[in-house]
Structure formats: C-alpha cells, structure tokens
Amino acid sequence: MNNEKQTIHEFDLNIIYDFFSKTERQGPGSPEETLKALGFIDGLTEKSKIADIGCGTGGQTMVLGENTSCEIIGVDTWHDFINQFNQNAQIKNLQDRVKGIVGNMENLPFQEGEFDLIWSEGAIYNIGFERGLNEWRKFLKQGGYIAVTENTWFTEERPAEIQEFWQKIYPEIDTIPNKVAQMQKAGYLPVATYVLPETIWTDYYTWQTLRRESFLKKYSGNNTIEEFVASMRYEAELFYKYKAYYGYMFYIGKKI
Fold first, then answer.
1. Contact at 8 Å (CB) between 73 and 99?
2. Rounded to an integer, what distance in angstroms lies between the CA atom of residue 216 and that of residue 228?
3. What is the edge-to-edge ordering of all strands in the sheet holding 49-53?
4. Strand, helix or coil at 1?
5. Distance (Å, rounded) from C-alpha 38 to C-alpha 181?
6. What SS3 state is found at 101?
7. Which of 39, 114, 214, 237 has its CA 20 to 30 A from that of 135?
8. Helix (H, G, I), strand (E, B), or coil: what is residue 94?
C-alpha cells in the first residue's frame, strides 16, 4: 500500500490530536446543524442534564449550552481538548453549567438514568454505532433522547475504491435502513433521521487545506507528518469523487 492510501487512523494519536487542537470542531458539522438537531428534542428544562460524548474542544457543546438552560458535561479522552473546552466555556460565560471532563466513552463515569439527552457528533464511530447506542442507553432517563451523527452509505452498491476505503476505516459503516434498525433494536424510537448538507464536508476540507499547510511548515522535513497530510488529502479527494454514495447522517432516538 502506498503512502497516499494510508488513513489518518494509522498514525500516532499525538499527531492526530496535534493537528486538530485549537479548532472549533474536529469533524464535519456546523452550529446550524447542531441547532436543527436540538429542535427535535422535547422537554428540556433548567433541571435537565446533557452529556456530550467525544466532545473534542466543544464546538457543538457550546451551541447546546447557549441554546438550552441545561447542565452539560462534555467527555473526551484528550486532556488538551478538555482544557480548551473549559476555556471556551469560560469565554462564553457558560462555566457554571457546561463542564468538560477527561474520560473514555467505553467506560463512562455516569450513573444509570442520569441524563435527559446524550449527544455525540462525529464521535460514536470510536466505539461503534451499535455498541454506543446499546451501552449508553442505561445513562438515559426513560423518555430521554440520544442524538448522534454517523457516516452512512446512501446506496446499496458503491464503487470498489470508496467501499474498500471506508470498510478499512470503519467496518460498521452501513445503509440508512440498517442504522435505523440498529437504533430500534437498541431500544429507541427513531425520532429523526436526515442527511447533513454537503457544506459541512466542504467547509471541513477547506479548513483542513489551510491547516495542512501550516502543519507541514511546523514539522518541515518530517516524513511521518508528510504521510499524514497525504492521507488527509486522499480522503478529501475521495469525498469529492464519491460524495453521492455516502455522508453524515443525524440519528435522533427516544429511549422507550
């Protein structure tokens, strides 16, 4: 396999975290789409509690904080992300209700029935869509909601190049009906399922282009960094070539 066809998941986590540090979001998404998804959640009050799992630096979490009166806990494995998260909460004067903690989504430090809403944008793939839905369900109150984004096939058949690429990165990528069926099987009533707009990807890859240039300068002559940047270029090229076949979906369910 040549270097151009490596994926960023094959590189040291420190490189990945360094690249995505001090950014508002670590994956495709936007404040508008966070707000749209939030509009499907009923019954939130100042007594409600939200967990944002795999929160990164908290771009989407701050949107939730600014548009609800809830207590919100963001969880991520990377200390620097959580430090930035808590700084962002202070800047936005949300620190009394919005807090980031270091934690692992495979072993969350929460109580059963603690939350009214579990949120996860661009992160549930780290544990797996089906596993995340099943294991996180116990942390929700009866009638509580889960809202996650997930990379999804739009078609039953795909060109071999993009099929092999995503199968390697995320074998659990699947079609919309299969994802909805997994949500139902895990004990949720599907409330909303919709495609996120292409702009979340184009904005994400435009930002990456600028970041890649500064990253290469920062680590000039480092072959590993050059390979890492090449892998991201390749992923972006594949998106523009095959965007008709896959993309991010928002899946919102209610615990039953």
1. yes
2. 10
3. 98-102, 71-76, 49-53, 115-120, 140-153, 246-255, 188-195
4. coil
5. 22
6. strand
7. 39
8. coil
DSSP 197: P
Contact 85, 76 (CB under 8 A): yes
Q: What DSSP letter does each residue of 106-145 carry, written as one string?
A: TB----TT-EEEEEESS-GGGT-HHHHHHHHGGGEEEEEE
Tokens, residue 37: 């998804």
Cα–Cα distance for residue pair 137/188, rounded to 1 Å: 9
**Among 148, 182, 179, 147, which Cα is nearest to 246's?**
179
d(CA 179, CA 181): 5
Q: Is the pTM of this model over 0.85?
A: yes
Per-residue pLDDT of the chain (256 residues; tens, 9 = 90+): 344 455 555 677 888 889 988 788 988 999 999 999 999 999 999 999 999 999 999 999 999 999 999 999 999 999 999 999 999 999 999 999 999 999 999 999 999 999 999 999 999 999 999 999 999 999 999 999 999 999 999 999 999 999 999 999 999 999 999 999 999 999 999 999 999 999 999 999 999 998 999 999 999 999 999 999 999 999 999 999 999 999 999 999 999 9
Decide if 194 contacts 170 (C-beta within 8 A): no
Domains of the chain: 23-197+245-255 (3.40.50.150)
Question: What tokens were used for 111?
Answer: 């109580």
Could you give the 3-state DSSP secondary structure of residue 176? helix
What is the Cα–Cα distance from 50 to 114, expressed in whole angstroms? 9
